[in-house]
Amino acid sequence: MITLYGPARSSAGRCLWCLEEIGQPYENKNIDMRAKEHKTEEFLEINPNGKVPALVDGDIKMFESFAINLYLADKYKPELLGKTSEERALSYQWSFWASSELQGPLIEILIQKMFMPDDKRDQNIINKSTEKLPALFNVLDSSLNNKKYLGGEHFTMADLNTASVVSVAPMVGFDISAYRNVQGWLKAISDRKAFQKYTDMRKS
Question: Which of 2, 74, 104, 127 has the smallest C-beta neighbourhood within 10 Å, fewest atoms?
C-alpha cells in the first residue's frame, strides 16, 4: 500500500492528484503541523527535512512533491510521463520550470498575504514577486499556442505539476484571465475525474 503524508491543501495536494491519476490504492495520512508531528522521530525517519509531503511505497521513502510525482508516474503509469522521448522530456522540463521559476514568486506572495500578520507584511516582497509573474505566464501561454496540453494532445506530468503551481495564482489575487491559452488548458484539465477528486479533497 502506498502511503502519502500531508494534507491536500499543502504541496502534498499535487501528489494526491497524481495518485488519483495513476489509479493505485493509497492511504493519505494527515500530519498535524501545530502538534509538531512533522518533527517527531518517526516522521523524520521518512522525511529528515521535517516537511510534507512524504511518501512510503514498499521499501522506498521519498520527499519533494515533484520528485514523488515523477516516481509514481514512472512506476505505475509511464504514459503519464509521455508516450515519446519528446513528451517525457517536456514532462521534466515543465516540472522543473514550475518548481524553480513559477512557484517561488507565487509562494512568496502567498506567505505575505495569508500567513503574515498585517504589521509584519512586507509589501515590497509582494510587489517584486508580482512583477515577475506576467513574464512567466507569457512563457506558459505562448507555449500552449495551438496545443491542448503542454506536451501536445496528451495529458502528462508536465500538465499536472505545472497546473498545481498555477492554481496558486487565484489564491494570491493574481488575475490570469488575460492568458487565453492558459485558460483553455485549465478547462481541459478541470474536466479530468482525477482533478475533480483532488479539488474535492482540497475543499474538505
Answer: 127
Examine residue 20 and state whether it is found in any structural domain, yes or no: yes
Domain that holds residue 30: 2-79
Measured CA to CA, the distance from residue 114 to residue 105 in angstroms comes to: 14
Domain assignment present for residue 161? The answer is: yes
**Total domains, the chain:** 2
Q: Quick one: 91 and 149 in the same domain?
A: yes
In a domain, 203, yes or no: no
Same domain, residue pair 61 and 148: no
**68 neighbors 18 (Cβ within 8 angstroms):** yes
Show the cell assigned to 177.
484571465
CA-to-CA distance for 178 and 99, rounded, in angstroms?
Answer: 23
Tens of pLDDT, residues 89-117: 999 999 999 999 999 999 999 999 999 99
Phi–psi pair at 29, nearest 5 degrees: -110, 125
**Confidence band of 32 (pLDDT split at 50, 70, 90):** confident
CA dist 14 and 8 (Å) reads 8
Give 55-65 pLDDT, tens digit per residue. Answer: 999 999 999 99
Hey, is 11 helix, strand or coil?
coil
Please check the confidence at residue 203 and state whether its pLDDT lies above 90: no
Domain end (from 79, 114, 144): 79
- Residue 81 near residue 91, CB atoms below 8 Å: yes
Nearest alpha-carbon partner for 82 in 33, 136, 152: 152
